[in-house]
């Protein structure tokens, strides 16, 4: 049977090699790609307006008979306009076209057309500027709701509308219904035929909504079904069972006892590691909740059982920090560590490669340098990645592919509400550390306006004089933005030259070379600089116990979870710590959001609130999960559909875990395809 998913676009009328090439730029290769190339918006041209009722500066659809031949008006070189008068039973209007001499061939006196364009009223004359038009009785792009697509050069709206209409007509009978009938009924969803037809050429706005709801549901449903299937599959892979799981000696060597939350997560990890299956676990824990020691415990177990581990961090600073924190703890038990990063010297690298290969190193800490081809392990059995959202699933896999059936442990400090975590990390088991070690001081947080600038500057100076350090974070400024924002560079110039000329101040931002970034970070870590001005690049797990003050400029521009992450950079030592949120404006929403920040230090609570107030967009911005792209669904707006489709996916797989039932054939096909291409 013909499958639109596998049918080359060139089989459609009017699409040859050249057009196909242009369409490829839009990601359209098959007929189904074209049919699921969705409009970005619609123009409601369904209402026909009488000439008498036209309003200035609006777009309108008008039915009229052409009453004069098209006349030509030369203005100057490069500007000629063409006019024709039309009338209906309420009045007369003039259609004006610029530099389009072919108009004469299409617009004939005495015929009735419908026009759609911008209305200009000057005194008593009513003009329609550069309207689209078509013979009234054959209307396709007037008198209806018209789709507007994102374009690329060589591809016009008209071409897309026509091709999509063609594709729909020709292939409609071959559409495949991936959503099982009982689910369509249960969630009151329309069939695929109705959905495709009405998402492009909606009969009315109600039909458009119905179509959209179904397609969004489908997109989420397929994603969630395939994630859950992947998870079920990894559960079945057999892993190396670690039979020695006695960690009492290691725990008693630590300067503290684990919190209950840490204990619970340790239990879960021990269970995974000894189960005979492969561990695939995400540990979510607020900043400072003590995730690193959890990693150390897993490493300890792995090495006790005679295997090697690797722990990868997204930046050199972090990798070194892990190495410095953990290698002394592990060394007491004869566990040999190495640090491998981009700046490791060639000679050291060679030595490390060799020792990893012959098993003389038990745990390699490092950056992406760990996943280069040169790195080979004798017996890698545990791969840990810290601050997961900086890595793609691919990179995580590249690390674990350096061994056989490697156990994976991922640490993240982004407290994602459970519903979202199921999507982002849908293929993993999730543990949560929902408690901070005892004795942590609350970070006092203040939200202030520009009028407090002087006082805050004095406060910064006082902290530095006490021997502490301060972060000052500015939002990253996009080139396209014209709003008045404090850019990190400008702010740095002002602070270091005018306000604190006597205090060593550093700067770090995303556009700097990796090496310079590292150097600036290191200066701050070891105290060469006391103030660090930065964009959000410092957000990831950096630990500078002497830093006691976090000042955030234009705090209103950040998501709450991000503010919380940033704030977590201070309060890591014994000294009382503070966070100052400068806001440039105070709408009700901003006030409400800042209030949560000043009242709560609980990352999960904050992220739940963020989700409620701003939708999940912040969690899925390009910054964190850029690769998660939807064709039609929008996490920010379609959140309730997301939940329902998740429940539906779960129910489906409970009934038919491998999707072998005949009526699930298409959904199996679709989810297999999705799983192949999935990058989170
Ligand atoms: P994060 O979860 O942000 O990665 P870390 O693992 O860096 O947090 O831990 C933050 C600090 O808390 C470290 O200095 C660590 O030694 C300390 N810590 C971890 N667990 C405990 C505990 N149970 N009791 C006291 N201090 C702890
Ligand atoms: Mg950490």
Strand order of the largest sheet: 11-12-10-13-14-9-15
What is the total tally of β strands? 21
Task: Show unreliable segments.
Answer: 620-627
Shape, principal axes of CA atoms: globular
**Helicity level:** 25-40%
Query: What structural class should be given to the helix and strand makeup?
Result: alpha/beta
Question: How large, in whole angstroms, is the Cα Rg?
Answer: 31 Å
Percent range for β-strand residues = 15-25%
Biggest sheet features: 7 strands, parallel
Structural notes for this entry:
The protein has 680 residues and is an alpha/beta fold. The chain has a seven-stranded parallel beta sheet, with helices on both faces. A six-stranded parallel beta sheet has the order 16-21-20-17-19-18, sandwiched between helices. Strand 13, helix 13 and strand 14 form a beta-alpha-beta unit. Helix 7 crosses helix 22, helix 10 crosses helix 11 and helix 18 runs antiparallel to helix 20. 42% of the residues are buried. About 1% of the residues have low confidence. Bound molecules: adenosine-5'-diphosphate (ADP) and magnesium ion. Magnesium ion (MG) binds next to loops.
